[in-house]
Amino acid sequence: MSRPAAAVNRVIKAYDVRGLVGEEIDEHFVSDVGGAFARLVRDEADPGPDRVVIGYDMRASSPALATAFAEGVVAQGLNVTRIGLASTDQLYFASGLLDCPGAMFTASHNPAAYNGIKLCRAGAKPVGKESGLTTISGEVIDGVPSFDGAPGTISDRDVLGDYGDFLRSLVDIAHLRPLRVAVDAGNGMGGHTTPAVLGPLASITLLPLYFELDGTFPNHEANPLDPANLVDLQRHVVETGADIGLAFDGDADRCFVVDERGHPVSPSAVTALVAGRELGREVGGTVIHNLITSRAVPELIAERGGTAIRSRVGHSYIKGLMAESGAIFGGEHSAHYYFRDFWGADSGMLAALHVLAALGEQDRPLSELMADYQRYAASGEINFTVADAPGCVEAVLASFGSRVQSLDHLDGVTVDLGDGCWFNLRTSNTEPLLRLNVEARTDDAVAAIVEHVATDIRAHSERSA
């Protein structure tokens, strides 16, 4: 059946498929997406893959949607391997292990009413707007053609233990001192994968928080990028005397870190730490960082003898550059961390293992260890809901006048004000927002730039209302 283009394009976005269950996404829709995806991967190679691996998160709608997607795939003649409940990086692992395309049913950190699909080719290679999603959208809009051959089959495989073994094999954890590790799974898939990955490590005492799988997120949103959702973990770390706190988002592909004092650790600092460890194994390697990460990241990469490549925000861009450059590692300000040895895909759990290894192989507390990687003050991401994003950006640029040292438009606009001060303004790829990130040498300098930009945005919005 054909579908309205506007409705399809509202759900099939730049990086994934995502929308309100029942209103924008239902079983019939995802069955068509499954069929279109099967046709895409089957027809672009000879011989094409013989199967698609499917995983899903803890949302109530996920099992039924995953089943409908599987029906669309097998109707196109491909087999399906179901791995059941999984984190997104566990699905990527299965795609790499089985060398086949994959589909993960999750809406990540979005509220319970949402669901979606993250798609990848064999070896966890990304499928984004420019690498397949537009083709899938077109077929869903026009109607997915039927397949004349025999339908595929559906089978089940448990890969959770293999996933844990594989991640541990990538990090030298032989010399860890005893560590008390607080983990806030946010009722998401971290509650499923953390015991499998960290549980077998005798030197680690797990201090779990919200490990019960519950797609209604009864305790807080599973979005640690919002500081409000870290509060429970910060308190838990201090109350339990933990050496470190880890927080995962809903599908557990992102990991945020809290030090022993309950203070959040910047994902840029984590990027720099992991980059240094990977460069210690491969001197002269290339590391990708997006343009929002701290400028401390490329500085530290250069100091460790590596080559830094700056990227747009978003996993499809990072993964593309990883493949083109042969980069050993990539990091984003949003706590996505990418590893060449993990098929170039992102894994928050693998990044967590690196941080635990770095902490456990020396005696300093985490706050002192991470101070080596924190050189600047930063605002974090600040979102503005605006009707005229281009007009707001123009107003901001005009107001800074001669203070602007340079501009670039790799992703939104990045404004260099000199003396270590810069900010980036960009529109969201997934939400109607204008995003601001600011970095400077001091907290006061950051606050001044944030206030300046926010005042300009408010003033323009009021004038154009």
UniProtKB/TrEMBL annotation:
**Cofactor(s) needed for function:** Mg(2+)
Q: Does the keyword Lyase apply?
A: no
Keywords on this record? Isomerase, Magnesium, Metal-binding, Phosphoprotein
Would the keyword Magnesium be found if you checked this record's keyword annotation? yes
**Residues of the Alpha-D-phosphohexomutase C-terminal domain:** 381-454
Q: Which family does it belong to?
A: Belongs to the phosphohexose mutase family.
Q: Which NCBIfam families match?
A: PRK09542.1
Name this polypeptide is given: Phosphomannomutase/phosphoglucomutase
The gene for this chain is manB
